[in-house]
Amino acid sequence: MKIRNIPRTCCLLLLALALGACAEQPRPVSEERPAAAPTPSAQETPAAAAATPGAQTPAPAPGAARLRPSPAEVRAALARAYKGAVAFEEADGRAAVGDFNGDGAEDLVVAVRPAAGRVEELNADLANWIVYEPLTVRPPDPRDFDPHEGVQKLKPREGRPRVEAGDVLLVVLHGFGDGGWRNPEAQQTYLLKNVAGSELRTQAPIEAKAAARRKTPRLRGDVLRERLAGGEGFLYWTGAGYGWFGAAGDER
């Protein structure tokens, strides 16, 4: 029996149907799951990056919570600025940090005593620090306002105060740049006499104004609130030094 020749058109049609059937075969579903995103290591987290040496840390906002300085940090800052002329007693521990002069850098305030045999050095005319007595600074009187100059002037101080051997003083070390008072270039410092009180704490200017019973002087930065001789008040930056504002009007 002879098989008849299949027309070429039929062969092509059969081939096309076969290829179509193959194309429609379902593909096996892959059981592989996409890999999970890698969990960042401790070294890659933002907190760890901020702790990396040399990383830039933004300056805290006025009145923001700040880390309390360690005794070792305080001693290092004092040694840099005063070269051993003042002594910090760790048992005393009166210290605070804040942006007291309002320049955006963190400052340090700490209670100290004159180092033995260094009093004359603290009183030297060419010293790198400024001895100041905030209790003698009077807030500007509105009657002294000069409308032409647009400023209020403080009354001139009566002579330069002198440090005595038994004094307890407040050092104010103004910060510089992102490192604040920890920055090796931070050198501007004030030595405040007769205002080393108790319960030192930093307070934001807006809070200090709200707590005051009367109008406060212009506050350019944080204030240092404390108890002094039984009364409460705060130290504030006048633009040229530090003044005392008593809660009950006792500037003394």
Structure description:
- There is one protein chain.
- The chain has 252 residues and is of the alpha+beta class.
- The protein is built from 5 helices and 10 strands, in the order H-H-H-E-E-E-H-E-E-E-E-H-E-E-E.
- It has helices spanning 8-23, 46-51, 71-82, 119-122, 205-211; strands spanning 86-87, 95-98, 107-114, 129-132, 169-173, 189-192, 198-203, 223-228, 231-237, 242-246.
- The strands form 2 sheets. Strands 1, 2, 3, 4, 5 and 6 form a 6-stranded mixed beta sheet that branches. The protein has a 4-stranded antiparallel beta sheet with strand order 7-8-9-10.
- A hairpin with an 8-residue loop joins strand 2 and strand 3 (107-114).
- The termini are far apart.
Cα distance, first to last residue? 135 Å
Q: Count helical runs.
A: 5
Write the element-wise H/E pattern from the N-terminal end onward. HHHEEEHEEEEHEEE
Show unreliable segments: 28-34, 36-59
What best-fitting shape do the alpha-carbon axes yield? globular
DSSP E strands, number: 10
- Assembly context of the chains: single chain
Largest sheet: 6 strands, mixed
| Class inferred from helices and paired strands | alpha+beta
Strand content: 15-25%
Rounded to an integer in angstroms, the radius of gyration calculated over CA atoms is 36 Å
Task: Note the main attributes of this structure.
20% strand; 4-stranded antiparallel beta sheet; 10 strands; 252 residues; 6-stranded mixed beta sheet
